[in-house]
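User: Please run a holo structure prediction.
Assistant: Happy to. Please share the sequence and the ligand.
User: Here you go; the ligand is zinc ion.
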Amino acid sequence: MHVQTVTGPIGLDQLGRTLMHEHLFIAFPGAEFDPSAMFDRAAFVTEAVRRLKQLRIEHGVRTFVDPCPIELGRDVALMREIAEKSEMHVVCTTGFYFEEMGLPVYWRARTVEEIAGLYIREITYGIGKTGIKAGAIKVATGAPAITGLEHKFLEAACLAQHATGVPIITHTQDGCAGPEQQAAFAKGGVPAHRCLIGHCCGNADPAYHRRVVDGGSYIGFDRIGLLRFQPDEIRADNLVRLAQSGHRAQIMMSQDRHCGWLGKYARQIGPQEQARIDRLRTEGQWPPHYTYLFTDFIPMLKARGLPEAEIYSILDDNPRRFFAGEPLPPARGH
Ligand SMILES: [Zn+2]
């Protein structure tokens, strides 16, 4: 039993403390045509290595999962270089983004079997000619509901999951369609505990989280620090509520941050936001650091009464059990 990283397979016992949903580099399709889009690859590698080393040395993180969709500038050779230099295990994924912001026309026209064929090849043989294998499958759906096209890619992910045994990590939009994703995975025969339903912390309603954990999946509180989508006070309240109601073993904590991208943002930035970004950049705080989870969010959990051992169990035990495919322990209420 092993997990594929961009530098080769590792044993489950080597995973250690894991952030399940972060990114190194992203590029939205089309950014490569922007003449103003400059990317200094060597400088980026230096900075990314510095940040991953800091995570590893100061906070004990051993594995960094980067579920970058194929068409969002996924660059696995870049990931490998950074993993080697930082001595961090980096796991990449196969799978496309959601319809509104991705899904290349060429692949929209393919059959479920053709899409699954690509995913299976990337998991078992490697990505392109790199020899680097994907360690999980990425599934993404939009809001307010899963589209017909997205269902096709979801079906392909189910076939690839069956063929390879690797787990599925999802993107949901605007904190919705998590239970709908679970229903589609169930229909495709994928056990719920092989799926991490991502970005559930974008929904403030505890009843939504309840539905996802009752469905037997892992639940992503994986946009910690993304205050544009949700204040962290609400994330912390909801996470502690879930843990105290016996669902600690299903929670995954991460931040969905990245430390490099190509060109401008995929949305227009207003002058006020731009000024804030420029100020943070001069202070060395932009892009935001991966260490925020440890320096800022974990203290919020402790302040709400979640014991340190339980907090670190979320980061240390849940990812290992998820990759191992072990069944969830029975939920224990307080
Ligand atoms: Zn992401």
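The first helix runs from residue 41 to 59.
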